[in-house]
Amino acid sequence: MIKGNQTLPEFILLGFSDLRALQGPLFWVVLLFYLVTLLGNSMIILLTRASPSLHLPIPSLHLPMYFFLRHLSVVELLYTTDIVPRTLADLASPHPQAISFQGCAAQMYIFIVLGISECCLLTAMAYDRYAAICRPLHYSILMSRRACVAMVSISWLMGIITATTHSSLIFTLPFPRHPIIPHFLCDILPVLRLASAGKHRSEISVMTATVVFIMVPFSLIVTSYVRILGAILAMASTQSRRKVFSTCSSHLLVVCLFFGTTSITYIQPQAGSSVTTNRILSLFYTVVTPMLNPIIYTLRNKEVAGALRHMVKRQVFSP
């Protein structure tokens, strides 16, 4: 056994090498989803930066949402780029691939930073909708540019603090010389389960972070939407209710996709989980969800769709 990083072990990522028949089809599906993710999120970033209707220096009832959406797209781009290129390389090989100790630590660190940041950003977006619908008279104060920048900064800071704590605890544990990770990425739980001793404190840290950064943000989001629902039901006009709810539907769908898969992955009992199920769930929230988010916001949001049509027309018909 090797303690800490005195002699750095080389991890073996099992990936999908035990499912040979699926590797070829999965490679092309993951590649297609990754390209759509790059295109969709890059488009959201470009639209929210370049379109005058989505990027103004003064607060309105919808512009802070697009400020958060732009940062969410940045997170999604980095998130998938941290995982997918390596996964594609592994899918192209018939044998399990090795990853260095430093490479595994770096992948996990970036993975945690971006995952926690996304949780916090989704919570900030829910608060923005609450402030816009339930406290419209104070909206310009609650969601000022300074407040929005502070929320985004805190989101990144929480990710960095959590990733630093987890990585320090996990990668100072003793590992076998050639530990095999039954996964396609260096995720927290699969790596932690390989440690031979001293992993109790890391398990406590993981569970604490799960409660703080999954359950607490999700509870705050649910609370915000309970208040929003109460405000919507108090409206006399059905048309007004439908119009107000439409401003929340995209975010609500993204929240359900993200928190649904992550909570199943990290909160389910260890004894009741299977390697295949965990890999499929992880593939969903690392590949599928980042691809769906820009599609959801483009199709279900009139301002984003309108800005996209305007940009396309301007590029096609301009001299």
Task: For the structure shown, list the relevant keywords.
319 residues; mainly alpha; 3-stranded mixed β-sheet; 3 strands; 74% helix
Summarize the structure.
With 319 residues, this protein is an all-alpha fold. It is built from ten helices and three strands, in the order E-H-H-E-H-H-H-E-H-H-H-H-H. Helix 2 (63-91) runs antiparallel to helix 9 and helix 7 (200-233) runs antiparallel to helix 8.
What is the strand and helix layout of this fold?
Layout: E1 11-13, H1 20-50, H2 63-91, E2 97-99, H3 101-134, H4 139-142, H5 145-170, E3 180-181, H6 188-192, H7 200-233, H8 238-267, H9 275-300, H10 302-317
Parallel strand pairs: 1-3
Antiparallel strand pairs: 1-2
Helix pairs in contact: 1-2, 1-9, 1-10, 2-3, 2-9, 3-5, 3-7, 3-8, 5-7, 7-8, 8-9, 9-10
Describe this structure in words.
- With 319 residues, the chain is mostly helical.
- Helices cover 74% and strands 3% of the residues.
- It is built from 10 helices and 3 strands.
- It has a 3-stranded mixed beta sheet.
- Helix 2 (63-91) runs antiparallel to helix 3, helix 3 runs antiparallel to helix 8 (238-267) and helix 5 runs antiparallel to helix 7 (200-233).
- The radius of gyration is 21 Å and the shape is globular.
- The model is unreliable at 1-5 and 55-61 (pLDDT under 50).
